[in-house]
Amino acid sequence: MYKIITNPLIQIKLSIIRNKNTDSQSFYENLTDVASLMSPYVFADLNLKTEEIATPVANTLGYKASDKVLFVVILRAGLGFLEGFRRMVPFAKIGFLGMYRDEETLMPHDYYKRLPANLADYKVYLLDPMLATGGSACDAINSLKNAGAKDISFVGLVGAMDGIKKIEESNSDVKIYLASLDEKLNEKGYIIPGLGDCGDRTFGL
Fold first, then answer.
1. What's the domain range around 81?
2. CA dihedral sign, ordered 202, 203, 204, 205
3. pTM higher than 0.90 for the full model?
4. How many CB atoms lie within 10 A of CB 1?
5. What is the CATH number of the domain that holds 144?
């Protein structure tokens, strides 16, 4: 299942992000804002539990999340995408996943993994702004499943249908959320129109 989340504010801020003349600070700030604007849709299925709270004038029932939430950031571009979601879900834990592909065998390898124990207990949200061919996303999803994750969502900024199809074909249980479904991939596998290298633009490289 995939969902394209858009509204006028996301469209305005995504246009700033796409603009090649946007500096890294503005790029990061708008990336953070878009993540915050996506959050009500991404977390719409969180389960709640009630608790009694006291307002200044009376007692009433309030709500807390009953689900355990884990953000898994794909290094390094995912770092710039994290803050907006963390603002909305400050109780979430944060894990990190760094991967590379062996140039000879083409097999994926984790070069860094930091995750909590008992991943099956969490709703896991895999954060990576770009979904192009879907190869890295699928490698990351498989790594999380091998570590025990059962409930995984992929959350990105822009993507191409190629990447969506690749995830759906191999991991049909994974939900996909994007702010834009872009036109296509070019011959190098870059998203068109895209926004360039998200990691480089976030960190000013």
1. 2-203
2. negative
3. yes
4. 10
5. 3.40.50.2020
What are residue 145's phi and psi, to 5 degrees?
-65, -40
pLDDT of residue 99: 76
Number of C-beta neighbours around residue 201 at 10 A: 21
Residue spans of beta strands (DSSP E) within the chain: 2-4, 48-54, 59-65, 68-74, 93-101, 108-114, 122-127, 130-131, 151-155, 158-159, 175-178, 180-181, 184-185, 191-192
pLDDT in tens, 21-80: 999 999 999 999 999 999 999 999 999 999 999 999 999 999 999 999 999 999 888 888
Per-residue confidence (pLDDT) for residue 100, from 0 to 100: 66
Q: How many domains does the chain have?
A: 1
Which residues belong to the active site?
101, 105, 197, 200
